[in-house]
Amino acid sequence: MTKIFETPLYPYVRSSDQDAAQPVRHTVVIIGAGPVGLAAAIDLAQQDVPVLVVDDNDKVSFGSRAICFAKRPLEILDRLGCGQPMVDKGVLWNLGKVFFDERQVYGFNLLPEDGHKRPAFINLQQYYFELYLVERVRALQAEGKAIEIRGGNKVVSVDPRADHVGLTIDTADGPYRIEADWLIACDGANSPVRRMMGLDFVGRVFEDNFLIADVKMTADFPTERWFWFDPPFNRNQSALLHKQPDDVWRIDLQLGWNIDKEAEKQPERVIPRLKAMLGEDVEFELEWVSIYTFQCRRMEKFRHGRVLFAGDSAHQVSPFGARGANSGLQDADNLVWKLKLVIDGKAGDALLDSYDDERIYGADENILNSSRSTDFITPKSDISRIFRDAVLDLSEKFEFARPFVNSGRLSVPCTYDGSPLNGPDASGLPARTRPGSPAADAPLGDGWLMDKLGNRFQLVGINSPVPAQLDVDGILVESVSLETAADPSGALSARYLGSADGAVYLMRPDQHVAARWTSFDEAAVRKALATALARH
Q: What is the CATH number of domain 4-10+24-90+119-198+305-365?
């Protein structure tokens, strides 16, 4: 049977740009048709910004690669019109277990409260993830949106200028040149754009090697994340097991330092390791095998004039915690609404500097947590290992020790504390929905709060009257009026009111809180919106 990652989805087709006498100018060009590049393109197209995606490949990623997609990115995907296929296909999970040697030391629930549309995580192979994004692109094209993917188009030079970026693209028919008002580089950890611009990462490189094996088998393991420290089948190392759709299981095995990577990828090395873990009698088929090391690093700046970096091209973390693709999707979510307003002339160029402020803050948070996970999983000294093993022993019986166990703190959305776009914060309201934080979902009768938010500035009045619309210097702010009586579960009140009787929230287009008050004040809203648009 032909696998999805063997089938061209956007094969090379000669474009009219290749026959133009002068380089054709595009509003936005995105390099890279992976999850981040496609998500950014869909977001732009939905907001009527013409966008061209170029990639030297012509199909979805080989192997499952990223598999864990968290609640916040699923909410972003709902806003992009393609969240439901992901959830329908994916394996939903909230629970995890941690083992030390052969003992389960404890379990955890990543979404311990009710009242959310989306689960804590789904597991879904990256090739399916990219397929559903491409299908969404096709749907937007059918609607007449100006979005295009060009496969077999390899960018070979980048020429940043003050008012545009020049690109040379190589194809089967030879090279051609185009220009972009704005360029978004989503071309991966080994970003050619970053290299062509003479830019690099700062941060840490880790020496440990890990084996990834995607194994097709029928097994009765539960849909949970299982992580082992020092298991009998991989002594003095770690192991991870995740379920994916189609009876595919992700297995990570720590291998240590100084290995022959090519040799360790061969079936004669991989299969005995898997049999030691799964049992000699278990029948399985290898779908994909890779060896990886990892880095916790980022670029010093994500914005370089009219070139903007997002996803792995801008930052890298270890895979423990599922922060790579999830944080990349949040990069796109943060960037696109700002770029849209700048392109439309409704915000100044300075708004794009806040992309650096906020997403570097998010990258540093991810790098910190990822580095801590890696240090706990792979202790670098005897003392560190003694401490880790003592924590694992204690966690089996004593709850106080469990927060110290770090098998990969799993991805959570970033709250932009200290962002220059944050407005005032009224006292008495819950900390979880303070300015800079992503909106917290809540049930509303037959629907969900998150489905009412996104792609524009909005006022959300909760037990507090707000005008239906407010025009602020050409920015139309629409309103959502809610009553806590619409949510008998009490989630809306608990997440947005706290001890207050009512509240008014100014929400950003990316569903983050810009400012909040206990009642509507037009002058205060106008001032907060100016702050959120970097007009001060």
A: 3.50.50.60
